[in-house]
Every structure is written in structure tokens, then in C-alpha cells.
Amino acid sequence: MRGHGNGRFITFEGGEGVGKSTQLVRLAEHLRGLGFETVTTREPGGTPKAETLRRILLSGRVAPLGALAEAALFAAARIDHVDKLISPALVRGAWVLCDRFFDSTRAYQGARGGVEPGALALLEKAAVGDLKPDLTIILDLPPQEGLARAAIRRASAGARADRFEAEGARFHEGLRRAFLDIAAREPERCCVVNGALPADEVARVIRQLVDARFLDAEPAAAQ
Ligand code: TMP
To answer: If one looks up domain 8-215 in CATH, what number appears?
Structure first.
């Protein structure tokens, strides 16, 4: 089933190491504390089939085929994710918090990868139909800070830089601009939050944004 139902769909976007995953967990804790069913997920991934595609994409094995082929595979993962997890949760009335969604394709494969906008739009329509986030939080951070954070995280996990982390400084600077451009084009959907603030402060700003947009007129769910 494809659809939006009564749920709320919030996506987190930004470059590498900006703190999306931490902030997504913090917002989920807040919403669950208010009694709302809250589903947390990520892209690429979120379902077993999409997680398989994630491993292939982040290994860099698709990169030699070009950015359009990568975009097509991100879209393939998204189809399964939307059909099996996101849409059913929204239709049940849950809140869905997703770490990356179509804005990442627009920024990484579009703005940075050079995939033509018409081709991206077709893939996007095929993958998500009319589904679009109710709110997209774009965490903004100078890329050198984000990449340094990502390197620390990798070192503690004993992992190597993935396909996109391994790109150079110009790529990451361009990504930052691409996300800010997306926010400027869709100000009603996107909010830019300063990812350089302490994590507690970022969490507070995001909670306020979400409460003001969705909850101030609405009582907490019955426990
Ligand atoms: P992350 O979720 O750990 O940030 O890793 C996902 C990586 O995949 C990240 O480098 C961004 C990249 N990506 C794209 O290039 N296009 C996409 O559509 C998505 C969802 C992610």
C-alpha cells in the first residue's frame, strides 16, 4: 500500500557526520515519551532487501557504472522501503523518522553526481509516487568537521571510509551547498538546523520545531 494516512513523516538530511542519526534517536525518544507510535529507519536500507542494496551501494561496487546507475539502485531500495515499511506505518498513524530520503539522491547523485534533473525526477516519482516528508530537518555543518566526526566514529567501529565518505573536500563542500539549495527551494518543508551546536542544544531546537509545527494544537496520544 502506498500512502500517507494520518501519520507524520520526518526526514533528516545533511552531509557526512552532521549528527543525523543521534538527533533522530533523540526526537524518537521525545515522541515516544508523548505516547506516539514512532518508527525509526534509514536510507538506503530500512528493510532486509534495501539493506542488501545498501551494502552493495556503500561498498562502491556500483560507482564504476556511473551516478545514474547508483541513483537507480537508491531508487530500487527506496521502492521496497516505502512499500514495506514507510507507507504502512504512516497509514497506521505512526510517526516515521527517516535518516536520509530523496533529498540525499537529489544532492549526492543530482547536484554532485551530475545526474540530469529529468532522469532524477522520473526515478523519484517511480520510487515514492506522491509521498513527501511533512518536515525535513537539514543539519548543516562545515564538511571538515563532519568528516572528522565520521572518521572518529569509523575508527571506534574499526571500519573504512565508505563510497561517499571517501570523496574529496570539493565534493563535500558541494554537497553542503546542495542541501542548503534544497532548503531554500522548499522552505515550507525544510528547516536548516546548525549541526555545530552541542548535541543537547540541537535536540532542543528540533523538539521545538516539531512541537510548534505538529503538536502545539494537538494533545499527546493516549498512553
Ligand atoms: P549514511 O546513512 O551512513 O550517511 O550513509 C549513506 C550514504 O549513502 C551517504 O554517504 C549518503 C549516500 N546516499 C546517496 O548517495 N544517495 C541516496 O539517495 C541516499 C539515501 C544516500
So the answer is: 3.40.50.300
